[in-house]
Amino acid sequence: MTKLNAILVSAPLLMLAAACSPETADNAETTLENAAADTAENAEVVQEVVEDAAIVAADEVSEGAADLRDNMADDEAAEAQTDGQLDGTD
């Protein structure tokens, strides 16, 4: 959730706090601002974790593709050569 979303979701609480004393309203506003800041910081941490996981996954896919390529090359080298024609004579 972005900071803006956190603020928008919390806006009704601010309106309720407005009906309270000024001190309560200030405390509520401070709490919401802190919550929005925490949410933004947490989103950044999650983004970094997801990016790191994507890098690891991409590395694994690349390694798997290289292994597959090597296996296919080995199989191709071990097979008898054909004349390359699709005429059923091989």
UniProtKB/TrEMBL annotation:
The protein, known as: Uncharacterized protein
Instruction: Give the species.
Output: Aurantiacibacter gangjinensis
